[in-house]
Amino acid sequence: MFWEKIIFNLLYKWKYLWALMRARLLSTSTPKEIKTITYVARTSDQHWIFGAKVRRLAKFSTLKATTYFHDRLRNLPETDGYFFVFHQYFYRAMRHNPQILHKRNIVMYTHPHFTFSFSKTHVIWCLNKAHKVICLNSTVQKQLIEAGLKSEKTELIHIASDPNFFYPHQRVTGSVGFCSAYSDRKNPEMIFNLVKHIPERPFYLIGRYWNRYEKFDELMSLPNFTYFDHRDYEHYPDLYNKIDIFISPSFLEGGPVPILEAMLSNCFPIVSNTGFGPDVVTHGENGFIFDTYADYREVTELIHQADSKTVDVRATAMQHSWENSSMKLDQLFRCE
């Protein structure tokens, strides 16, 4: 921690102090009433999940809300408040748009990933400059507070999905599915082993970049496996309705949102103990939870147990809608 502080003070902090000094010289005043807000993301996010998030949250806001996409996060429009869909976007925007320091800034924080450039010291110092920090799950909320974020700045909101977009289906086939882009933290070995060792069940994977997985060719050769690669988001409801049992095997997550999408599609979720999985799934009732480093055999047993579950999973996820999340954010923008 000592060296983190030294590195942050020498290499990075001066950039923010310069922005703070410029902010003091501006004539911009702090709004007494919040009427307009901007949901901020990068241009490259427009056709992926972050872009979908800001568009949906802005759509259901009761304030005058707009979206703004810019890869370098410069020239933010003049509004009373800003929502940053990823925490590092706030740090960059703060440096390039010092006027926002007079406004209400709400920042979404998905999961801890500290690096040399964005150390714990760096991240916590910046987050304490925000009005509120949205934590997607209770574990991350606790971690940030323990790291030094002021507890009154944190809010727990499980952002979110659209019950009008995802429709329910009856679970009858016992098929199993996953949804994610490829990365090591998504636990690809678990996926591979489940498909390989349960040949009697059909498996579906919705995602992209899985050709980077070292066993991709072997996975594709398995006769019970179907890969939906880079499918447009508008097709996701139909794809989820091919799936009866949804598996989220990740080692580390902030959400993930596909859990909510699958639950709204009435898929029975079996999820690892990370992200908001334990917040939205009650083990044995509307899904199962397993240890993040569980063996595939344990998950195989849970899959067999899921066949007998008749619970209306969709009903347990309806509260986590974009509309409800947007209303909560509006309230946070308005509160002192």
Can you characterise this structure?
By secondary structure, this protein is an alpha/beta fold. 37% of the residues lie in helices and 17% in strands. The chain has helices at 2-11, 13-25, 49-59, 87-96, 120-127, 138-147, 188-197, 216-221, 236-240, 257-264, 277-280, 296-306, 313-317, 322-334; strands spanning 36-41, 64-69, 81-84, 104-109, 132-135, 154-156, 176-181, 203-208, 225-229, 245-248, 268-272, 288-290. The strands form two sheets. It has a six-stranded parallel beta sheet. The protein has a six-stranded parallel beta sheet with strand order 9-8-7-10-11-12, with helices on both faces. Helix 2 (13-25) crosses helix 4, helix 3 (49-59) crosses helix 14 (322-334) and helix 7 (188-197) packs across helix 12 (296-306). The longest helix has 13 residues, at 13-25. The mean pLDDT is 95.
Which short descriptors sum up this protein?
336 residues, alpha/beta, 6-stranded parallel sheet, 14 helices, 12 strands
Count of β-strands: 12
Low-confidence runs of at least 5 consecutive residues: none
Largest sheet: 6 strands, parallel
Helix count, per DSSP?
A: 14
Q: Helicity range of the residues? A: 25-40%
Structural class: alpha/beta
Q: Could you give the order of strands across the largest sheet? A: 2-1-3-4-5-6
Order of helices and strands: HHEHEEHEHEHEEHEHEHEHEHEHHH
Distance between the termini: 32 Å
Mean pLDDT over the full residue set: 95
What Rg is obtained from the alpha carbons, in whole angstroms?
21 Å
Strand content: 15-25%
Write down the overall geometry.
globular
